[in-house]
């Protein structure tokens, strides 16, 4: 906690480049086995003093305080302060942080209403998080049988749909698409043409990936927006290895796209087993989330019943018609373009 301010602010300096507030650090003492020096010891009632400064009286930092702070850091941060150099750095940060906090108290920032409000909000957040962990998270326990049952009840979520893989060229101009199709019919390889068109920035939509021009990878019907049905029907019904006869035109959101393709591969619908790593992870995550929500709902319902909570919806004013209409327009999702969407 004490090091947070210093980490963000760094070393505060004046125009000459020297620290604004000089530190009267006395150095590291040899009371801990990690320190290898022969300095004098200064052991007080609260522990071994490793630094001190004058600010409204003598202020001390002890070795025990520092080691306690470090032990409370995440493990990856603790590793930064394992040797003598790291501990010296932490000691300095600790002293600087206390100086800054001392100045803040002099400015009565500990009485600032805005800060106090944030402290109160954070306190409430921590309390809610703690009680929820006690009443919900700590009671969440699922077995392998629970996961298997969830999978069986939701098998439809783990079906890979029928898919095809195409060599595809998608263009925005019909005449250009006809020219390209004629070149391919004359014997030019479709992927070679796709690379040339990609280099000129002409490719769009399916097959436009600049790293693999022309290759759509595996795609399903759900990958594409409304309006592309003629293309999808042709792709799924075509013969593998055959160039589709002609240019297919589709319209998406008022934009016309022209497609030339060869069907290279196809694979049937496939039920993914629970044992697959991605399926198992998904099942565990969703089953635990569902169970947690059930525990949460039951707990909150019990609290509401105990407190006899009453709500008065009729006392909430209706939204103005104009505001409601604007909100409705803002919530309208945009339809996707002809670019294919990734599938799970």
Number of helices: 11
The total count of strands amounts to 9
Assign the structural class, choosing from mainly alpha, mainly beta, alpha/beta, alpha+beta, or little secondary structure.
alpha+beta
Q: What do the pLDDT scores average to?
A: 85
The low-confidence parts are 1-41
The largest sheet is:
4 strands, antiparallel
Following the backbone from N to C, one meets helices and strands in this order, namely: HEEEHHHHHEEHHEHEEEHH
Rg over CA atoms, rounded to whole Å, is 33 Å
Overall form: elongated
For the record, the count of structural domains works out to: 3
- Fraction of residues in helix: 40-55%
Tell me the span between the first and last alpha carbons: 42 Å
Compile the SSE list and pairings.
Elements: H1 3-9, E1 43-44, E2 47-54, E3 58-62, H2 63-71, H3 75-78, H4 84-106, H5 113-135, H6 144-153, E4 159-160, E5 163-171, H7 174-185, H8 190-199, E6 215-219, H9 229-237, E7 248-252, E8 255-267, E9 270-271, H10 277-307, H11 321-330
Antiparallel strand pairs: 1-2, 2-3, 4-9, 5-6, 5-8, 7-8
Helix pairs in contact: 1-4, 6-10
Description of the molecule:
The chain is α+β, with helices and mostly antiparallel strands. The protein has 3 domains: 3-111, no CATH class; 142-159 and 272-323, no CATH class; 162-268, Roll (Chitinase A, domain 3). Helix content is 43%, strand content 15%. It is built from 11 helices and 9 strands. The protein has helices at 3-9, 63-71, 75-78, 84-106, 113-135, 144-153, 174-185, 190-199, 229-237, 277-307, 321-330; strands at 43-44, 47-54, 58-62, 159-160, 163-171, 215-219, 248-252, 255-267, 270-271. The strands form 3 sheets. A 4-stranded antiparallel beta sheet has the order 6-5-8-7, sandwiched between helices. A hairpin with a 2-residue loop joins strand 7 (248-252) and strand 8 (255-267). Helix 6 (144-153) packs across helix 10. The chain is elongated, with a radius of gyration of 33 Å. The two termini are 42 Å apart.
